[in-house]
Amino acid sequence: MCDSTQNGSYDENLHIASIFVVFVGSAAGILLPLLPEFILKNNISSYKEVLLKNLTFYCKWFGSGVILATSLVHLLFEAFNTLSPNCINLTYEPLSPLIVLGSLVIVLVIDFCLARLMYRKRLKAEQTIRDSNVIDDGREQEEKNEADLKRIQKIQAHTDIIIIESGIVFHSVIVGLTLGVATEPGFIALFIAIVFHQACDGLAIGSRMAELSYKGKRLQQVIMIVSYALITPIGIAIGIGVKHNFDPAKVSTQLAIGILDSIASGVLLYGAIVDVLAKECFGTGGPTGKPGLLEASNMDVASAFGALLLGAGIMSLLGHWA
Ligand SMILES: [Zn+2]
């Protein structure tokens, strides 16, 4: 980013149009995996039900690949580049990986504390069952512990998604800003790439949301959807507003973007590997509490990894532009 000088022609109308197109792309991406949930509420034929459940499955694995590639190919690369010694004069040169390490450890600690709380609740619940000898009193306590456990499990699953969305949202602002200040030649290619970029990232968040129940948390779900759909258009609008004053090579801009990129990269790297892949593959208590892919048929495992590679591949290709 530090050596990018933009001297080409700038079509403001096209930039304003891009705000709306990117909004539609982002909204479509995040809403698509949530469709089955809304449609399945109505009575539909079993054929359609199978189709929709397959859609959820493929979206989820495709989305996992997208998150992995976003954390490594997009954020980590951009963070390293922006804070590279070629761009900025740093006393401590490996600053970017240091911040990635820091943010990864902080997210690990938060996630671990929640998991430990859940583990202790479970131990307590099991102990109560052993002690109770099916006395009514024990049964009541058991139900209470079970409810507590479910509540913490839900908090953890919802925290996981917020962590992933916050990493992606940060990258989305920068992507929007880049498009807002972009000039010809290159604007059209960047524009098309960003529409797909936002649709894929939206699909990744939407498919994680589809796994969870948002009963009693509808407002939170709506805020997450709306803020994701709006974040890149806002970035573009800011870019259009500051295009004459925006100098990506300025040291303070470099430092701010590089540091925030590094934080988002660490957050998303943890989210991609621990919250998404480890839980989904090895079944260490994913959002649904299901055993992950370990019990799935060979065909399902092959389909899951196929979709994962496709998501990671498409997002890696888009990394060429944004
Ligand atoms: Zn990107």
Alpha-beta content class: mainly alpha
Number of strands: 0
The geometry reads as globular
Discrete helix count = 9
Helix content: over 70%
Tell me the major beta sheet.
Answer: none
Radius of gyration: 22 Å
Q: What series of H and E elements makes up the topology?
A: HHHHHHHHH
- Show unreliable segments: none
Number of domains: 1
- Give the rounded overall mean pLDDT: 85
**Beta-strand proportion:** under 5%
Bound molecules: zinc ion
- First and last CA, distance: 11 Å
Question: What does this protein structure show overall?
Answer:
- One of its GO terms (molecular function) is zinc ion transmembrane transporter activity.
- There is one protein chain.
- The longest helix has 46 residues, at 136-181.
- The protein has 9 helices and no strands.
- 35% of the residues are buried.
- 77% of the residues lie in helices and 0% in strands.
- The structure holds zinc ion (ZN).
